[in-house]
Write a structure and sequence with these properties.
single chain; alpha+beta
Length: about 110
């Protein structure tokens, strides 16, 4: 994202969030699979094929999906030196919501 996020209008900010959701829900690093009955968000790591599930996003969890630089480039904080955890969390919630319900292996049997 270019420019200052804090200077964006509400409509601009929503358009940016929608664009991020469209572009990055299924990207070169991971794909959002959806949410499971226990409320966990589920993702597939493309490099390994591993399924990563978590309740809430934190630095340790998102590092399993992509490296720090990937997050900083797409979801920078106001100084563009770190990623914005609030933007990352919202993105991950919206991405899994968009993907819908994910049936885990224990439910599929």
């Amino acid at each position: 994202m270019s420019g200052n996020k804090s200077a964006m209008t509400l409509a601009d900010r929503q358009a940016w969030r929608d664009r991020m959701l469209e572009e990055y829900s299924d990207n070169e690093m991971f794909a959002a699979l959806g949410f499971s009955l226990d409320g966990k968000k589920n993702f597939r790591v493309k490099a390994t094929g591993d399924i990563v599930s978590f309740d809430r996003a934190c630095g340790v969890q998102i590092a399993k999906l992509a490296d720090r630089e990937w997050w900083v480039v797409r979801f920078p904080n106001d100084t563009a030196t770190r990623y914005s955890m609030s933007e990352v969390t919202e993105f991950l919630c919206r991405a899994t919501g968009r993907a819908g319900f994910y049936v885990t292996a224990d439910l599929a049997e």
